Amino acid sequence: MAGRIASKNGFLEISFAWLFALIVGAVILFLAIYTTTKVVKTEQTTIDAETAKRIGILLNPLETEFETGKTTSIILPSETKIYNGCNNIGIFGRQLIRISQKSFGKWTETDIDVGFSNKYLFSEEYAEGKKFYLFSKPFNFPFKVSDVIYLTSSLRKYCFMSAPEKIEEEISLLKQDNILLNECPDSENAVKVCFTSGGTCDIKINYGAKYVEKGGKIMHFSDDALMYGAIFADSEVYECQLKRLMQRVEQLSLLYKDKTILASKTGCGSAIKSDLLAFSNMAKNFESSANLDSISATAESINEKNEGSSQCRLW
After folding, report:
1. Whole-prediction pTM value?
2. CB-based burial of residue 312 (10 Å sphere; 0-12 exposed, 13-18 middle, 19+ buried)?
3. Average pLDDT value for the chain
4. How does strand 144-153 pair with strand 121-122?
5. What is the rounded CA–CA span in Å between residue 247 and residue 69?
6. Domain boundaries, the chain
7. What integer pLDDT is reported at residue 56 of this predicted model?
8. What are the C-alpha distances in Å from 186 to residues 35, 52, 233?
9. CB 101, CB 47: distance < 8 Å
């Protein structure tokens, strides 16, 4: 009898020992998986942030030697979403770039935004793919304000229909595979951009009245640089970047006003000192593209006066 009890006790002791070992092993395995997952997620977040920073650096037209009428591209090793953020905080506002990449079949999540104060990117809220196209144009208002950059995914096709001759010539020079002229594939990723009132179009452009109708919203533009911005960007991104450009106009106007004072000491009097001050205030109070008409008229007037100054031009 005692032997059986001992046997039972021994059996019970072995069972508890195994149970304890299993529990400890499970805890250790859980901690190992949890730690590995955290490390992988941290490393992926770091990679996303570094990729965003590299893309931001690439957006610098001087560093990439962009030229008007030239296209460059970014090819990333995995499926990527490039998020375009923008704010108007501070003197020049901020261009924000955030990256999400597909890893093990899932999109990474990061709340890290890489910011730049001297870049102006026009794109959809996010562009998705592995290959992305970039081209730029200078924005003059009336002096050189900045180069604005357009980013699109190779997966998105933009079909320009019945565009003005100079626009067609410029697009032809770009030789950008995802921008087509007067043809459009039957695809859900194809965006039809029309310069005429007829037909079914995703984006309608009134080139004479200078506005773009997209997604039920109207975006006004003053030149082709902003027109492309309205075509390729979401309305929220477009309006924010336009406001940032006007913040830059405000500061540059004050610099040119100060330049008139220096120029007067060399015998170059300027008749646009007060105009530049008023122009700076208009840019400061700029609210949306709906205000472009009045401020554009002032910009044109200032430019005419500057060009009429012969040897005493400020720009």
Report:
1. 0.81
2. middle
3. 84
4. parallel
5. 27
6. 32-133+141-155, 156-231, 241-312
7. 56
8. 48, 33, 22
9. yes
